[in-house]
Amino acid sequence: MDVVVVESPAKAKTINKYLGKNYKVLASFGHVRDLPAKDGSVRPDEDFAMSWAVDTASSKRLADIAKAVKDADGLILATDPDREGEAISWHVLEVLKQKRALKDKPVSRVVFNAITKSSVLEAMANPRQIDAPLVDAYLARRALDYLVGFTLSPVLWRKLPGARSAGRVQSVALRLVCDRELEIERFIREEYWQIAAILGTPRKDNFEARLTAFDRKKLQKLDISNKAQADDIKAMLDGATFKALSVEAKPTRRNPGPPFTTSTLQQAASSRLGFSASRTMQVAQRLYEGMDIGGETTGLITYMRTDGVQMAPEAISAARDAIAKEFGPKYLPEKPRNYTTKAKNAQEAHEAIRPTDFMRTPASVRQYLDADQARLYEIVWKRAIASQMQPAEIERTTVEIEAVNGARSAELRAVGSVVRFDGFIAAYTDQKDEDAEDEEDRRLPEIRAGEQLEREAINATQHTTEPPPRYSEASLIKKLEELGIGRPSTYTAILKTLEDRDYVSMDKRKLLPQAKGRLLSAFLESFFERYVEYDFTASLEEKLDEISDGKLAWKDVLRDFWKDFSGAVADIKELRVTDVLDALNEELAPLVFPAREDGSNPRICPKCGTGNLSLKLGKFGAFVGCSNYPECSLTRQLGDAANPNAENGNGEDGTKVLGKDPYTAEEITLRSGRFGPYVQRGDGKEAKRSSLPKGWTVDSIDHEKALALLSLPRDVGKHPESGKMISAGLGRYGPFVLHDGTYANLDNIEDVFSIGLNRAVSVIAEKQLKGPGGRNGGTAAALKELGEHPAGGGKIVVRDGKYGPYVNFGKVNATLPKGKDPQSVTIEDAVTLIAEKEAKGGNGGRKPFRKAAAPAKKPAAKKPAAKKPAAKKPAAQKMAAQKMAAKKVANKKG
Question: Which end of the chain has the smaller Cβ count within 10 Å, N or C?
Answer without folding.
Answer: C
